[in-house]
Design a protein that fits this description.
With 186 residues, the protein is an alpha/beta fold. 31% of the residues lie in helices and 17% in strands. The structure holds magnesium ion and zinc ion.
């Protein structure tokens, strides 16, 4: 059975904002970010948002507000952890819960999936635990995550480190031509 490929993209510090919580009403994207999302879709990838938003648990925004925003940005679906920092859950990155749920829901081929994010100990570790490839962007927390906080996610390494989402997508699309499908190079 053919399985699909997907790219999971973090919000804060990856497609816009500064890495901190920003309400969907006032969040803005970096130049080119929406075009990059579209490039991935044109190349046949599902594009999913992958985000921890614990402020939802504090009533500072709703799941629906985030879902609506991600739909306007062109995402096929949003995987959002709304839980508080002290609530145990399987979905909050670095847990791989949201990724594994998506694999199940969309019959994804793990070896053809990527995660793009700005934080090592959440985005990169979640990808590592789910067995997906990963790209760290240097926007948002990316630079600090790659230097000062590198020891917090020593168990893995990004497949690529990109200046921003646009460079990340360019690299990803240059890789996908060598992805193995049913044992054959395509
Ligand atoms: Mg982030
Ligand atoms: Zn959660």
């Amino acid at each position: 059975m053919a399985r699909d490929k997907a790219v999971f993209i973090d919000r804060d510090g990856t497609i816009g904002g500064d890495g901190h919580f920003i309400h969907p009403d006032v969040f803005t994207c970096y130049d080119g970010a929406l075009a990059s999302i579209q490039r991935l879709k044109d190349a046949g990838y599902y594009v999913f948002a992958l985000t921890n938003q614990h402020r939802i648990s504090k009533g500072q925004a709703t799941m629906e507000e985030f879902e609506r925003q991600f739909a306007t940005f062109g995402f096929d679906q949003a995987y959002i952890c709304p839980h508080g920092m002290s609530e145990p859950c399987e979905c909050r990155k670095p847990n791989p819960g949201m990724l594994l749920k998506a694999v199940e829901e969309h019959q994804l081929d793990l070896s053809a999936c990527f995660v793009i994010g700005d934080v090592g100990d959440t985005d990169m570790l979640a990808a590592h635990r789910a067995g997906m490839r990963k790209i760290l962007v240097l926007t948002g927390w990316g630079k600090n995550s790659f230097t000062q906080y590198r020891d917090q996610w020593f168990e893995t390494e990004p497949d690529y480190v990109a200046e921003d989402i646009n460079e990340a997508v360019g690299w990803l699309l240059s890789q996908s031509s060598s992805v193995h499908i049913e044992g054959q190079k395509v």
